[in-house]
Structures are given as structure tokens and as C-alpha cells.
Amino acid sequence: MKIKNRVLRENINSYLFLLPFLVIFLIFLAYPVIYSFILSLHRVTPYTDLYNVFSDMKFVGLKNYLKLLNDSKFWWSLIVTFYYAILTIPGMIILGLLLAIFLNNKLPGVSFFRSAYFLPNVLDILVVSLIWTLIYSPHFGVFVRFLEWIGIKGFSEKGILGNPRTALPGIAFAMILKGSGFGMILFLSAIQNIPHSVYEAADIDGANAWQKLIYVTIPLVKPIILFLVIMGTISSLNAFTEIYAMTQGGPYEVYFLGEIQGATKVSGFYLFENWAQMRYGYAAAISYVLLIITLIISLINARIMRRKF
Amino acid sequence: MADVVLKNVSKIYKGGVIGCKNINLSVSDREFCVIVGPSGCGKSTTLRLIAGLEEITEGELYIGGDLVNEIPPKDRDIAMVFQDYALYPHMTVEENMSFGLRLRKYPKDEIKRRVIEAARILEIEHLLSRRPKQLSGGQRQRVALGRAIVRKPKVFLFDEPLSNLDAKLRVQMRIEIKKLHSKLRTTMIYVTHDQVEAMTLGDKIVVMKDGLIQQIDDPLSIYEKPKTQFVAGFIGSPPMNFIRVKVEDKDDYILIKEIGDGFKIVIDRNTFSYLIPYSGKEITLGIRPEDIVDRIFSKIDTKENVVEAEVVAEEPMGSENIIHAKTKSSNLVIRTDGTNRVKMGDRLELLFKLDKLHFFDVDDGKRIE
Fold first, then answer.
1. Is the full-model pTM beyond 0.90?
2. Count of alpha carbons within 13 angstroms of residue A224, beta-carbon side
3. I want to staple A77 with a disulfide (CB 3.0 to 4.6 A). Which of A183, A267, B115, B136 is the partner?
4. Which residues of A touch B73 (CB under 8 A)?
């Protein structure tokens, strides 16, 4: 009996310590997750009481999900999201790795550059987006001026973000520069964990600088690369702020499945649009589909990461 | 197969820190040369200069007769075994061993043949598909050796390869390396701080201290005729006893007196004629623990040259007994037979083997002879 009591008391103590987190988790994570699923099964009708929207919606079952399957705008948004991921992830990884290799040298000022490259990461996406909107803007934007200076005049009228071909790559470029400092720090610590003697052994085995990078460094930072791929995919699926601040999903000059589509309308922004137009149930359904995609990718991640060396 | 010659080689780091200075060393083909010394003595630096992992500040380095100062490590035809093994963690044993050959674009069947041959010599054939993490320390060291062997280099370099192993394994691997040398008949240069490794492995021993070479000799010469007091104290375990003494030339004999009115020893004036110039001066007397005998245990009936001492500690090891004793003003370590047991405070009557005395200059530590 006594032992049982003690175990019980220890359990209670543990839960008490967990309580502050659990309260926050339940209110701000668990409740919205469950509630948005309920929302995704409902629809706002013309008769819904606008002062009490969330409790006065019509139950429609899986209709929202079925509608999604035939929604060319949704499929387009997934394509844009995928394209956005392709644009940002490799760039972020390659730039992060290059910076880390560069900063791994014992050069003067290395610690300054380490902080400098990491700093944009701390800034809010909104701030960075606004700065880049100015840089990319037509007529007076620095980037456009630079292009004019080297003889490219096609962007003078609409800027980078006004052109459907360059809008998304433009956003991706800005986000690569903002985000690669994070990968750099991870790569740097991983590289610094590789014993120096391993490189010396490679020297004696006859590897040149390039071969050392390909056969020693990259295989040994592979876990970081995988991690960054997963994180990048998730942040592409969640991408919203940069689109909202820089293009609002436009320019609307692309045709897909017979409809005009926004060149930068990623799924996160499409979700926001539906919400802003009071299609709460539909927006919730989109968010659930995105959640499932994210979960699948995370599971693949966990599977790959479990494979140790 | 090649000899290695260092001529006046120095390594001076930025800020004037000396790695090693004026190293003159010639290792002939197929020789096993051991560089030994305390940490920070420049032994690893010297090895890394030979490997080409660090640049030579001054002097010339020849491998197989070619000047290689400016040649990168990969073109020096050397192989190196590191203290921390330096295996590629993401490669299997087989991949680790074949990496150098693959980079050099050897034909596949040749690589396979060499890896299997080396694995057989080192008895690691069953480990070929494992990764370094799945191996024990001893197995990893064998893989590191294997990686060196498959290349069939002119010179093998070892940088304290056994320091990370436990005592038992170290003894075992030491013998393996010795066997390997007799099997491969290749020039080997081996760096260690362990004087037992140096004595047992080396055809030639280089003792270093503070970046300078103290002595180069074969193991027994180093043991029996150490050129400096440092070498005398570094090689041998337990180390040689050093006693500060005063020399007095008495015309038909020489008197050695322990400082502080301690023991006196009479020695032959002709045999030790080199001490005559030191008459009236202080010098250091060196005597190895096994060269001190106890008069009573050894049943020697003499009253001459007896050194009286009091036991302060003993370390019985079964086969031998290490006795720590105190004379008037110095401490002595005596190695005796394991059956000769003593108690704290026992009075000992000791005799020094007169043909095993070493004398060193007090000022520069050089051997007097």
C-alpha cells in the first residue's frame, strides 16, 4: 500500500510540473486543432447570424473536402507551394553550407560575419518582406535599377514582383537570404564536430578540397540537410506572411484549368483568402488537408532520421 | 621502400612558438624508428612535418632520396595512423580501407584484392561491412592500420596509435605492430610518449625534449648509456635514481660523497678517471633501481661502500618488489626480487653496482664519461 501511495504521489507531482505547459497547450493548440476540424464540417449560410457566426453554421459533412477536389484554385495553390519549396529549399541549403564552410576557416572577422549572416533570421518576415518590396519595386527599386544598369530593362515598369515569371522566384530569393543563416549555424556546428584528423587522413589518402567536400563533409552533415529539407517543406506549406506583404498572391496573369490564377498564390495564402471571405468551413478544410500533408512529410522525416550511421 | 632523412628541420609557429628545432634524423629503409618524449616535446610535430600535414619552416626533408618539402601529403607515398584512428564515420570498414585507392583510381578487382589481403593480415575480414561506430577501440585501430596497409606506402607513420586503448589491448596491439613490421618490411616511424612502447618496438629510438633531439640510439644503448640526465630519467620504469654528490680525488682512489653528510663510496681512480676534473665539484650520480642490491638479501659479506637507508614504502608486485627508501638527503627506489619483503622503517644496507654508475653534469645535464 505504502509503495503504491508513493508512486501515486510522484505521478501527481509530475503532472503538477507539467500543468503550466498543458494549460497553454490545451487552450492554444489542442482546442483550435479540434475546433477547426469541427469547423471544416460546417458552412456559413446566407442566413447565418453574423454576430454569432461560429455557433450558427450549417453542418455539411465532408462536402467541403469533396469541393476541394474539384477546386482548380486549390490545386493551383498546391502547385505554387511545391514550386516555392523547390525554389527555396535547395538554395537555402546550398547557401547555408557554403557560408558554414567559409566561416569554418580561421579568418579575421569570422565571428562578425557569423552574427551578420544569422541576424536576418531574427527579423520578422513582415519586415524583411517590406524591405524587399522596396528593393524590387518598379522605377526606383535598387534591384530594378541595378538590372537597368547592366542593360536589362524589362522590369522598369512592373518591377520584379509585378511580373508573373519573376514574382515567386523574387520572393524565394529574399527568403533564402533571410533564412540561410539558420542552416549555416547548424552546418557550422556539425562541421566543427568533425575531427580535424579525419580531414588529415583524407589529405594523406589523396583527396583534394573538392573530394573532401563531396566524400567527407557532405555525408557527415547529411542529417542536417535532411532536417532542413523537412523544415523547408513545412515552412513552404505554412508560407503566408511574405506573400501577403509582397504580392497578395498576384500578379493574376496565369491560366490554369481554364481559370486566371495568382502567380504567387501558395496554399497558405489561398487559405487566408477563403477565411477573409468568411468561408470559415472551407478554410478549415484546406488547413486540414495541409496538416495531413505536413504529417506525412514529418513521418517520412522521422523514418529517414531513424536510420543511423 | 624508402629511407627518410631530415636535415636541420625546424618548425616555428606564428608568434615564435617552437614546434621542433634543428632536427637531424636519418631513418634507413625498413627501419622501425620510434620518436619518444613527454607531451609538448615536438615529437608529433616532427611526424606531421614528415607527413606533410604541416609546413617545414626551415631545413630539408628527403623521402626515398627526393626532396619533398613542397610535395603535398598525398604525393609523398606515406600512410599515417592517427591517435583517434580518424576513420570516416559514414563509411564501412571496407570503404574506409579502400578510400585512398578509389581516389587514386585503382582497378576495382585490385582494390578488392588488397582490402581482403590486409583484412586477413589484421583478422578483420568479418568486420568489412560494419561502420566504425559498431567497432571496439581495438578493432577501430586495426581498421586504421588496414587503411594504411592497403596503400602499400613507402613509409608508415604512427602518431601515438595505442594511447586510446586500454592497458591490456595496448600490449597486444604493440606485439601486432611489431609482427606487422617484420611481415611488411617497410620503413616505419612511430611517435609515442610511452617509453615501454619505444623500447620494445624500436630498432632506433629518438628521445626528444622541448623541440630538440636529446639522443638517437638503439634501445639498449639508450638504456645503458643515456647521453643526458633527461634521457636517463625518461627511459626506464621505475626511473633512474638521481643523487647529488661531491667528487673528491684522493690520488689513489676517488671518493663520492652524498651532499648533506650522507653516504660515501670509494671508486677506482683509473676506471673513473673522467671524474678527476670534477674533483671538489658537485655532480649528479645516477643509478637504476635494479642496480642497487641489498647486502643482507644478497648475502654479500662486505662493509665497504655500504649505503644505509630507511624504508618509506614498498610496492609488491609478485614478481618483483619496488622498495622506496630514504638516505640522509635523497630518496632511492630499489627493484628487488618479489620475495624480498620489507616493513616501513626497516634499515637497509645497500650496495650500488659500481659498473652501472652514471654521472651527469649538474649544469647542462650531459653525461660525464
1. no
2. 23
3. A267
4. 200, 203-204
